Amino acid sequence: MGDFKTVGQQFVNFYYSTFDSGRANLAGLYRDTSMLSFEASEIMGTQAIIEKLSSLPFQKVQHRVDTMDTQPSNSQGGLMVLVTGALLVDDSTNPLHFCQVFQLLPHDGSYYVQNDVFRLNYG
Amino acid sequence: MGDFKTVGQQFVNFYYSTFDSGRANLAGLYRDTSMLSFEASEIMGTQAIIEKLSSLPFQKVQHRVDTMDTQPSNSQGGLMVLVTGALLVDDSTNPLHFCQVFQLLPHDGSYYVQNDVFRLNYG
């Protein structure tokens, strides 16, 4: 049980630190089969996903992870990771609560994001 | 794209209406391999999952679904469903925001819940 949780934790740390420092650099995590649902927009493939993330209307963003849970998603080493947290954009001091789920699939000793769903959780 | 979304919608409607009317009746949706992560508790198998859900310290509960997103999770017809919403317990008027993700796997013309992660999303 310990090992997949470590993978999930490492992924989450890497994902949000990369997102917050330069989200175009997330390209290496996606594939042409990857799916992103972002606030009701549905996008497939690395290029379209990175274009979507890059087009989000803020310059600065900071994610805070409050909870994360990882479960095996299949018998080939896939992982499902659910994250809840908050984000601050630009100079706002009003944190926006979000949840995001990923399915990570293993390939060549690493993992890529096959499924990605992001939703703000309004109060 | 339409069909798997219909399955996701039907599942979500059934899941929360059953939860709110008698949560022990969710047993038919789980298997002995099913995993539930509920607010940091990790549970496996139908019986343990139903015991956990039945032991939650409220008598009445009402879920409100605000958003749901469904994506295919594998090439065998699996689905990943992310739900955000709020729930009211007993006579509280303070909605608790939650997010929950399911992975549904097909079997014999129906679906069961292989993965289930529930988290409250605190303000």
From TrEMBL, chains A, B:
NTF2 domain segment(s): 7-120
Subcellular location: Cytoplasm; Nucleus
InterPro entries registered for this protein in UniProt: NTF2 (IPR045875), NTF2-like_dom_sf (IPR032710), NTF2_dom (IPR002075), Nuclear_transport_factor_2_euk (IPR018222)
SUPFAM superfamilies, A to Z: NTF2-like
Record Gene3D superfamilies: 3.10.450.50
One GO BP annotation of this record: mRNA transport
PROSITE patterns given in the database record: NTF2_DOMAIN (PS50177)
Protein keywords: Cytoplasm, Nucleus, Protein transport, Transport
Gene Ontology cellular component terms for the protein in this record: cytoplasm; nuclear envelope
Domain of life the protein comes from: Eukaryota
Tagged with keyword Zinc: no
Cited function: Has a role in nuclear-cytoplasmic transport of proteins and mRNAs.
PANTHER family in UniProt: NUCLEAR TRANSPORT FACTOR 2
Name of this protein: Nuclear transport factor 2
Organism: Dacryopinax primogenitus (strain DJM 731) (Brown rot fungus)
